[in-house]
Amino acid sequence: MCYIPVFCWITATVLEDVLKTREVGELPKNLTEMYIHFLVIQAKVKKVKYDGGFETDPHWSPEKKDLDVFDLKKYSASEKAFLRLLPVIKASNKALCEVLSSVLTSQSCNLRELDLSSNDLQDSGLKLLSTGLESPYCNLQSLRLTSCYLTERSCEALSSVFLSQSFRLRELDLSNNDLQDSGGILLSAGLKNPHCTLKSLSLSGCLIAQRGCISLASALSSNPSHLRELDLSYNHPGESGMKLLSAGLKDPLWRLETLRYRRNA
């Protein structure tokens, strides 16, 4: 690690701050904790140097407050600081998923919303993340995974999550991933389960064709009481798929209120 200058600089910055400001407390246990602490330091420096803040403000301690929504943009002190972190972020997607999965399984986790869009997670990253999603301690309600290089293999992992008795997710965005019909069919198997209480599912631009859409319509007929919104824009549901889904909108047992479908140009 020390042969990479950016890692050396981040490590030295974090350790200096920890040793200077913490009379009692543990050092960062892993790279993710170190990166989080580094982001806090950068935000603190900006606040103190340019905005008239104080180093002793209590919200600068990562342990002081539970995190409900994680948004990296809120913690970047400047464009320069963020650019320095880009190599770290790009190189640690697997580590990110492992740590997030660990966080979601923690009894003290209060995270409600997670946006990992436009990250190269791939199926291996989603599989790691799904372990956390299946935890009885996971309170996550919104998960956005747009453009994360996922395939139908990720749908298999998510379908298993849908079967979990502790399932709490209400919003799932899988737009712009190469899921295809096989992925739509796998997701449908999970949607049929009564434990699945998903309210919003976005599959825009996922290359789902007629077979996948017919399977989704069948799933909604089997478990019609939860899903309120379904986005199938830029897919190819075919005449049969659209006919079944449109008929479902008129079914009094279905709770679906919004069906989005926009053809490819």
TrEMBL record:
Please provide the record's keywords in A-Z order.
Answer: Leucine-rich repeat, Repeat
What Gene3D superfamilies does the entry give?
Ribonuclease Inhibitor (3.80.10.10)
- InterPro entries in alphabetical order: Leu-rich_rpt, LRR_dom_sf, NLR
**Record-given protein name:** NACHT, LRR and PYD domains-containing protein 12-like
Which gene is annotated as encoding this protein in its UniProt record?
LOC106456462
